[in-house]
Specification:
3 helices; alpha+beta; globular
């Protein structure tokens, strides 16, 4: 795992596009506190049918810079699939 990502760290997930109900997966309110592992899962899996929402996702963390690029979120998601949970 990349040393810059702590998958069990508490982060905040926001999106510039407001939730549109339960269609397309679970809704996440602005500034929802999740683990990094769960936040990238929400963006990649739950928001998979809403490209605008995926591209506007922002993950704020205390341990490093803001994660705001979908490619980086997908990379972290791939890492999380190969990393055991605590």
């Amino acid at each position: 795992m990349h040393s810059g990502y702590h998958l069990d760290e508490a982060v905040y997930l926001t999106s510039c596009k407001p939730p549109s109900g339960l269609a397309g997966g679970a809704t996440v309110a602005p500034n929802t506190s999740l683990t990094l592992r769960e936040a990238v899962r929400v963006v990649v899996e739950d928001w998979s049918t809403d490209r605008t929402r995926q591209f506007s996702a922002v993950i704020t963390r205390n341990s490093g810079p803001v994660i705001q690029w979908l490619d980086e979120i997908r990379t972290i998601y791939a890492l999380s699939q190969h990393s055991p949970t605590l």
